[in-house]
């Protein structure tokens, strides 16, 4: 074909397919990018023959040859570049979209992690708060519970009190720290008791159960632990089943739910299981050492299941009795150590019988003239919950009254004698800034005091409510009211020391007059100053010497007054964001004080600082405080327009 065309003089004699006038080859559909050299040559060759045929046809037909319009130089390159640019742009857009999506996913992941950490932190703080409160409240087995609370606060302030991760571990830590558990404590799975053998030093803090399990086993170890874990202790479960059958049998024959017969049989069950009566202590101790050594070697751990101890010492028997008693709803305390038993490794279980707390027939003598029959009172709504009981609005013979019913109705004769003494004091107190005592209900289970009712409620509520209506003049008057009432109490004979002065214990009448209440009731309050779970506790207002359980006099009330004055002129809540135990550590042991803002009047700030002196003797009397406040009130009145003044005695 090529030779035939040459003979017709069509095309270029070169015949190599190269033409300088040929347009750039089109982009091959099969080729890509830079791999189409061969394809380009073929395209040019086809174009050359096409042009020759066109010229020949024109000459044959006699028509002039039409020259093809030459393509603009580099037009195809521009198209290719445009397409490449578009493709590159599309790829870049997609890449950016992917990066944005990945960044969004990473951001959401970070935010989720932050949320989880915050939730975990809040959970830990809540657990810590609950743990601190449980730790402080569980002191009822001690003769001096407040002394133990002080030790707890000291440990926490020094950072030596660990946060336990489960209720069982919380109870275990309390038992390790204070050597006592109360009737209300229940021993759950996960509870463990640690004992240091021989003359080894006392552990600075209780190791966790995980740490105990991870310790390599050694016969020379001086630390042993007994664990309550029914899931892995079938023998303990079997003992509980025996105890239950025994209790059903005993209770079917007697109306007493917790009687002497049941307790005796339970004690016998424990004794028989753990080796019987101890006749020769030294021989029995040797038996225990052999049994415990063999048990620890067999399980390769110093943590021994309670049910596996077939020979048990006093501390093991008392613990087992408590576990079984809890399973039968028998109220049981558990105490150990020298202070309770006279021996470092001794322990006791203490049971409360059905007839051990009946006091329904006891009444108070000496307050007959103030005796109020419970049936004479019509109770209304509950308006408060204080450190000693619930407060109700009530009516007595047509008069509005406040009825303060004690939470603790099961009290001893000695406590009732103290209650009577308090009434003897309260019934003779008469002052415009002291809540009026009207009478008492002196028979349990309705042991109560009855006072006048003040409709505006507590000063704490008025200070810290959102729509505060207390201007500076009114707050000065309130401060002076409190100082007057406390000055009266401190000048009584004998001196009446409040010991729990705080804004929740200051009540306000309809005319905005502030009155001191709950004075002289310290013996009737719950045994711990950390008992309140309401918004306002007690430790926030207490003097450092009281927090340390040191001897104190009426000057402790002056320190508390300084906190109230700080509240009135900052409108802030003292030590907000700190739990009571942290406050005890800060004020009682670290000598910290609340910050006084710069906007507080210098005279007020100075009174507050004097009230907060560490040495009680350096604190002012309430008479001195009144002398400092009166000029301030007069100056404030002088600066008010005459029409806004409210006449009121300042004497």
UniProtKB/TrEMBL annotation:
It holds the Pfam family PK_Tyr_Ser-Thr. Keywords: ATP-binding, Kinase, Nucleotide-binding, Serine/threonine-protein kinase, Transferase. The keyword Transferase applies. It is an enzyme of class 2 (transferase). It comes from Oryza sativa subsp. indica. It catalyses: L-threonyl-[protein] + ATP = O-phospho-L-threonyl-[protein] + ADP + H(+); L-seryl-[protein] + ATP = O-phospho-L-seryl-[protein] + ADP + H(+). Its EC number is 2.7.11.1. CDD domains: STKc_MAP3K-like. This is non-specific serine/threonine protein kinase. One of its GO terms (molecular function) is ATP binding. Residues 1-77, 94-123 are annotated as: Disordered. Residues 30-43 have a biased composition (Gly residues). Residues 377-633 form the Protein kinase domain.
